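Input record (one chain):
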Amino acid sequence: MPAELSVTKTADTNDGACTLDDCSLREAILAANGRPGPDQIHVPAGVYELTLIGDDDLGAVGDLDITDDVTIRGDGGWSTGDTRTVLDGIGEDRILEIHAGATVEIRDLQVRNGYAYSSGGILNSGDLTLIDVEVVQNRAALGGGIGNGGVLHLRHTFVLGNESDDAGGGIYNYFDSQAWIEGDTLVGFNRAAVYGGGVYTLSGGTVYVVGSRIAGNSAVTGAGLFVGDGA
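The corresponding structure, as predicted from the sequence alone:
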């Protein structure tokens, strides 16, 4: 049976332990990474700002690196005020990176204010499903909201108001990746300076849109969806 970890504080700390009464989101993810098999993490309502600025692929600082199977569940991303779970990059770093080989489900929370050269909010190289998630107001040169280099499923999810300085304001779909936009998802009101305001896909990438909308996006070329060579 999957182990469940509960986040107990909004502060972004990493003191090497995730206990019943002292566990940050970063510490919970690191604990889940260190255990074989799937885990579950509950993130209560609150604003979780990533303040441990830095650059590594282990998750000790910078974005939250997920290397093993996990389900992360918030208390809501659609509502307002104190009832939402919000992961906030404070405009300093990407928020989440899912590594190759990891199967991850994230639900009922908001991802906002991420910033990186590539994939401002979320970078996926594994198998990622977002359910009832808002990805909003993130920025990057490529993939303002989400950069996908694996398999991505968006279900009843909003990708809104993200920006790219080049391509893929909402979603940038890399290489031989698959993105499924389904279940009444909206990719809307994102902006790219050049290509693919809503979605940009290139180099054999595949995008499926089922019962969902790509609307209100802007770019010089391909406001809603831009398909590059080989896609």
